[in-house]
Design brief:
single chain, 91 residues, alpha+beta, 5 strands, elongated
Length: 91
């Protein structure tokens, strides 16, 4: 059995920056389709009712909302570490 290397600790500045990361380009990089709406909002056909704007999202039908990290964890189901890796582009 091989020991896993410990996951890196993320600094407060890295976490703060990831929370504020613009979601639209990150989601497009993942291959998700976004349709632009009025006032800088985007909808995702894959997730009906979910609205993305800047680094925030809301899903009124499910009473959920949050920042970029929350999206990757709560909507896409990633761990915090994997969400951070996706947002910051680190491996």
């Amino acid at each position: 059995m091989t020991a896993r290397s410990p996951q890196p600790r993320w600094s407060r500045d890295q976490i703060r920056a990831a929370r504020l990361a613009p979601l639209a380009p990150l989601l497009q990089q993942r291959g998700l389709q976004l349709i632009e709406r009025e006032a800088g909002n985007f909808i995702l056909p894959t997730y009906p009712g979910l609205i993305v704007k800047d680094s925030y999202w809301r899903w009124p039908e499910r009473n959920q909302a949050g920042n970029a990290i929350d999206f990757f964890m709560r909507v896409l189901g990633l761990s915090f570490h994997d969400a951070m890796r996706q947002i910051t582009g680190t491996s």
